[in-house]
Amino acid sequence: MDHLDYDTLDTLKQVMEDDFNLLIETFRQDSIERLKKLHEVVQGNDADLIRRAAHSFKGSSSNIGAQQLSALCATLEKKALAGNFQGLAEDVQIIEKEFLHVQSLLANYS
């Protein structure tokens, strides 16, 4: 699975025109906040909070074409839905690493 779907990015760039960079910056800022939230919620045992935080990040990642990031969030969402709390902090670290990679790819996208 690719880290970024460049067809999605190309379409967004075409549709958003001059606002494309704002979209990317908004995604970046939003993602930083979503990661903070994930780090917080996985410390507890509230499956619904974890699921909702993962679901939200999954959606925004998918919208921007960050396929691998979206898939990792989907896995975390499914674990929370199943009440499986094992390894959640590590899962969030993997999500964060993927976000940093996506952020780098987006910065180099033109």
* Order of helical and strand elements: HHHHH
CATH-level-4 superfamily name: HPT domain
Runs in which pLDDT lies below 50 for 5 or more consecutive residues are none
Based on the structure given, which CATH architecture is correct? Up-down Bundle
What is the helical fraction, as a range of percent?
over 70%
CATH topology label: Four Helix Bundle (Hemerythrin (Met), subunit A)
Strand content: under 5%
Count of separate DSSP helical elements: 5
Domains counted in the coordinates: how many? Answer: 1
Distance between the termini: 21 Å
**Largest sheet descriptor:** none
Total strand count, please? 0
Radius of gyration, taken over Cα atoms and rounded to an integer in Å: 14 Å
Structural class based on helices, strands and sheet pairing: mainly alpha
Class in CATH? Mainly Alpha
> Judging from the principal axes of the Cα atoms, what is the shape?
elongated
What is the overall pLDDT average?
96
